[in-house]
Design brief:
By secondary structure, the protein is α/β, with parallel strands linked by helices. It has a single domain, classed as 3-Layer(aba) Sandwich (Rossmann fold), CATH 3.40.50. It is 49% helix and 14% strand. Strand 2, helix 2 and strand 3 form a beta-alpha-beta unit. The structure holds adenosine-5'-triphosphate and magnesium ion.
């Protein structure tokens, strides 16, 4: 799968989700490449904290992205490519969208985040129109409170009102996601069967169903 983590808003959980998903896929035995396009190099630094077999993290200059992506895909060396974008709206966003099997738009359950998410959705629709290919996308609620609150209810209502597709899995505010950047361990290792690990496993099952069709969900049980 070619997965792009995009949002024009900073700090919503793009890099966290990208790292957790990519690491989980690699730990299942897949060969996974993360392309870190953020000049902060969050994920390139994270990858130096611990080696995960099968996972490669490449920090790529924005102007070299096209060529790097083409070479990586053509090499046949990877089963999945995960693209972590910066929280800005620039040309690599559009280049990455055009190549994606699925775009993940993390957003916190707040009005400004949902508004920014809508901007990315507009960009995806534009790229779909220009390339003539439907690009699947889903919003992902992140850092939500464990109990449903008025804020999350507002978010769900807004999403429904705007007809925006949403992952059923939402990522709760959990220390396992923060610890990941301290100890290098992804949530599927620190909390394999519950909490953050269970969320990431469920999220990946949904991603597979979207990219490969619903039969995948049945296979995953
Ligand atoms: N579900 C979560 N629970 C707890 N903390 C989280 C969660 N998701 C992200 N965080 C924390 O929130 C902060 C921002 O997350 P992250 O760096 O993934 O956002 P980002 O969208 O990549 O930001 P940027 O646009 O700056 O690259 C980090 O400190 C991260 O540890
Ligand atoms: Mg980031």
């Amino acid at each position: 799968m070619i997965l792009t983590f995009a949002s024009s808003k900073g700090g919503v959980g793009k890099s966290t989700t990208c790292a957790a998903v990519a690491a989980a896929l690699a730990l299942e035995g897949a060969r996974v490449l993360i392309i870190d396009l953020d000049q902060n190099r969050t994920l390139a630094r994270w990858s130096r904290r611990g080696v995960i077999e099968g996972l490669t993290v490449a920090a790529v200059e924005t102007q070299k992205f096209g060529g790097f992506f083409r070479d990586s895909e053509a090499s046949g060396a990877y089963d999945h490519i995960c693209i972590d974008l910066p929280g800005t709206r620039e040309v690599t966003l559009f280049k990455a969208l055009a190549r994606s099997d699925l775009v993940i738009i993390p957003a916190q359950a707040s009005e400004p985040d949902l508004r920014e998410a809508l901007v990315v959705v507009g960009d995806i629709r534009d790229v779909s129109d220009t390339t003539g290919r439907q690009i699947p996308y889903r919003l992902l609620l992140t850092k939500i409170f464990p109990l449903r609150s008025r804020v999350t209810d507002f978010a769900y209502a807004e999403l429904a009102r705007n007809g925006l597709p949403l992952f059923r899995t939402a990522l709760v505010e959990r220390s396992a996601y923060r610890e990941m950047f301290l100890n290098g361990q992804p949530p599927t290792v620190t909390e394999p069967e519950k909490g953050a690990g269970a969320e990431i496993t469920a999220l990946i099952a949904e991603m597979r169903a979207i990219v490969n069709g619903p039969a995948e969900l049945l296979k995953a049980g």
